[in-house]
Here is the input.
Amino acid sequence: MRVKVGADFTVTSPRETPAVFMIRPETRGAHMTLAERWDSDPGVPYHEYPDIYGNVCRRMTLPAGSFSLRYVALVEADGDLDPYDPSAIEHPIAELPDEALVYTLPSRYCLSDMLFPQAMERFGGLAPGWNRVQAICDFVHDHVTFGYGTSTPSTTALDVYESGNGVCRDYAHLAISFCRALNIPARYSFGYMPDIDVPPPYAPMDFCAWFEVYLSGRWWIFDARNNVRRRARVTIARGRDALDVAMLTTYGATTLDEMVVYADQTDERVRAFA
Here is the structure.
């Protein structure tokens, strides 16, 4: 399945400001980038580097004044629904791979230690495995009401649990926290997600957040916000929580004037990106 993804940013900075963008699809997933194009006004030097999680970052210095950046990519994505295996098992901590251990610990937004009593009360008595993680998704999906402006950059999973409000990243943070409280490795993911097989009305396109859980020797996608299997997810980055994978990090005062995100199924050919 071919999808066109990307984002347009317009920002204003009072002075030259170092910045890092994380908006390019990952290079190791179930999708393949066939072509891509970056445009900025004014043009600025940049370089790319992998962060400690292997995510692709583009580093540059924003000029003083207005700056616009446009990224668009043509991606061959998996047209199947998110993988599903209700027989997948949880692993004892002693059997987890070393790299999964960091995803059992509390992090900036995922306060699994603070939410341990609630996790044990609600999910501790359930049989370990896929169905317990799905029960966590079901609870978070029903407990949290989606609404833009209902959370802030400082909102934690505990705040979301207490308020019952948030956006997609907050759903993911709360579900991750419950999983980690039960020693289930869980990591934050975000990217592009087209509205394929989704009935109208459609919400404005935005970056989407979901999470991944380590069961039966591999990572599986779960989505507490939508709580349904989706097609053609295009992952940008993964980390402990949203702090690790901000789409834009600036080292100074910068105003985001406008952001437009797109992710749509397309019949476009690679030559359209020449």
